[in-house]
Amino acid sequence: MNSAVLAPSAGNEPPDIFSPYNRHLNRGVASYSLAHQFNGNFSYQLPFGRGSSGVVNRLIGGWQWNGIVSWQGGFPFTPLAGSNISGTGDANQSDVPSWNPNFHGPVILGKPDQWFDPRAFVLPTQGTFGNVARGSLRGPGLFSLDTSFFKRTKISEALNLQFRAEAFNLLNHPNFVYPNEVVFQGTNYSPSAGVITNTSTTSRQIQFALKLVF
Q1: Where are the strands (E) in the chain, listed by range?
Q2: Which of 7, 25, 81, 167 has the greatest count of CB atoms below 10 A from its CB?
Q3: What would the pLDDT profile of 16-42 be if each residue is shown by its tens digit?
């Protein structure tokens, strides 16, 4: 009926039920439910410098290549009417629109400037509840590839120096947050309906570090 992680409500669904008379509209997948998810990682000790002399081994030996890849689909979200069209006086604006029976075409457009087509929805009659259920649409997915190179250099029997070069979101792939869920502004379609204004991950980040292991 409602879900969130350690909070009264998640950011992608209303905090209250839509209609006390039609509770099945609130039956849906959890706000943090993913239909598809893949995570993989690898670590490979590069075969360079083995059996080489001390100087050569210090230069080209001891390298390790690591990587993490993450891919997942989008989280569900609920389109909102933008006002208390039902007239219940609920200040949480949990009213939802209705599906437009005359709409034809894809609801999800998949573009940051318009993730979904607001014309797929209509305002319900004043004093009634909309028929769009909770979690009816899904937001953008996520893809990220991180990689790193480690080089271990032995200083003494008890000391090792590790050089680390790490790159996060190596392909600089943009990952977006939920779109604006409010479909209407008054009785008109909101110009910001379905618009995405933020990313969920950072751009490519590269860092270098030295680590002394003893």
Answers
A1: 37-45, 63-72, 76-77, 98-99, 108-111, 114-116, 121-122, 137-138, 142-154, 160-168, 184-185, 188-189, 205-213
A2: 81
A3: 888 878 888 888 888 889 999 999 999
CA 46 to chain centre: 34
Could you tell me which residue, 20 or 131, shows the higher pLDDT? Answer: 131
Q: How far apart are CA 107 and CA 201, in angstroms?
A: 25
Cβ neighbors of 153 (< 8 A, separation 6 or more) are: 58, 62, 160, 161, 162, 163
- Give the Cα separation of 166 and 59 in Å (integer): 19
- Average pLDDT for residues 129-151, to the nearest whole number? 94
User: Look-up: residue for tokens 């318009």?
Assistant: 114
**pTM for the structure as a whole:** 0.82
